[in-house]
Amino acid sequence: xxxxxxxxxxxxxxxxxxxxxxxxxxxxxxxxxxxxxxxxxxxxxxxxxxxxxxxxxxxxxxxxxxxxxxxxxxxxxxxxxxxxxxxxxxxxxxxxxxxxxxxxxxxxxxxxxxxxxxxxxxxxxxxxxxxxxxxxxxxxxxxxxxxxxxxxxxxxxxxxxxxxxxxxxxxxxxxxxxxxxxxxxxxxxxxxxxxxxxxxxxxxxxxxxxxxxxxxxxxxxxxxxxxxxxxxxxxxxxxxxxxxxxxxxxxxxxxxxxxxxxxxxxxxxxxxxxxxxxxxxxxxxxxxxxxxxxxxxxxxxxxxxxxxxxxxxxxxxxxxxxxxxxxxxxxxxxxxxxxxxxxxxxxxxxxxxxxxxxxxxxxxxxxxxxxxxxxxxxxxxxxxxxxxxxxxxxxxxxxxxxxxxxxxxxxxxxxxxxxxxxxxxxxxxxxxxxxxxxxxxxxxxxxxxxxxxxxxxxxxxxxxxxxxxxxxxxxxxxxxxxxxxxxxxx
Length: 490
Fold this sequence. Notes:
Residues 410-482 form the AMP-binding enzyme C-terminal domain. Pfam families: AMP-binding, AMP-binding_C. It comes from Saccharopolyspora flava. One of its GO terms (molecular function) is CoA-ligase activity. By secondary structure, the protein is an alpha/beta fold. The protein folds into 2 domains: 1-397, ANL, N-terminal domain (Rossmann fold, 3-Layer(aba) Sandwich); 400-489, GMP Synthetase, Chain A, domain 3, CATH 3.30.300. It is 30% helix and 27% strand. It is built from 15 helices and 26 strands. The strands form 6 sheets. It has a 9-stranded mixed β-sheet, sandwiched between helices. Strands 16, 17, 19, 20 and 21 form a 5-stranded antiparallel β-sheet that branches. Strand 3, helix 3 (62-73) and strand 4 (77-80) form a beta-alpha-beta unit. Helix 1 (2-13) packs antiparallel against helix 2 (29-46), helix 9 packs across helix 10 (242-250) and helix 10 crosses helix 11 (274-284). It is globular, with a radius of gyration of 23 Å. The mean pLDDT is 91.
């Protein structure tokens, strides 16, 4: 099974190299391998069986990945949950998957003491976790196939209730091997992971671990924490969302932080603003790699490497996402599912061995995103003559103004070019005359709505311009950096 093979291979090749490090401890590949095996036996002794679902509720730390690998070794399914969601929402997800066990931090586990299905609870920060498996060396573990389900990863729920995406070990393997062929990472990478380990973005971390990298974990992103981690560990890579990069450069600590070790910044989940990209290239002088992915298709399946990124002065529109990794396929299709010619905008669909087995216990929702064997991403875009995918917007976010399509991301991108605008989000609102018109929510300093509307007049066609602009303190985003437009609509 892929995760077990990954740990065994790296123990053989790099036994004394640091595999994982957080703010409290670090483990070598030999220690990580042995601990995950011990932990798997300990969980089996507690009664966790093949096919059981085990919730992991914690901020990022070494024990999270130890748990994922141990649960997978048992043939059980690890179910990471967003530790920041409200207790009732988390409880609904736990009950929906029928979890029999919960691992995590005490403070988070204590919010859920009355769940009928959960019979096993183990806290990372109590002696019971450290002792787990130490007295059960003879427990036999099952043989686990790559086709066995290994995890239920919940979507980010930007448009509604989070769905549980069921993936197998073969999905992790397919994405990792395709990505490694495309990105060709060296095995001396030290990567600071700024993204949470509880949804599809964690597949990026698993992929670089497969290459023998050292992964630096943080209990939640702050600019100061990320800057300090790069400097302390002489990180060669960072994995983040563009807004995190903006916040890092705004931090006072950025003025003195030594970031010279960085060779590559991986970014995804949201478009890279031109001003942030320009600033980052000038400050860091390293390469940039775009990551485009979706939990339902196995995580990262498209990338644009450093050599393909434009020079800052050449960026006139959004940077393309890149090409699909080997083993996966993508195309733009019309509403009938017919593939569109180069350059024509349609919905991006994906297929390949990385795609999910389906939504957990939700065949109807699975059918809704499946089209003749392809997964429908909900993203609108097109492919250029070199096979690069260019995203335009989410299909659900497109504003239809008197029959004309307005892509909110385009309006947001133009707004962000104004020097006073720090962030922006555009949604459609009902209109008696046109059916729907754009409304812009803007975070800005020292600028008025009439001034911004005048600026847009010079940069957007009339039908694309917002009817009005509302100033807000912050654009609501989830931990992955995606705009929560349902909150703005509410």
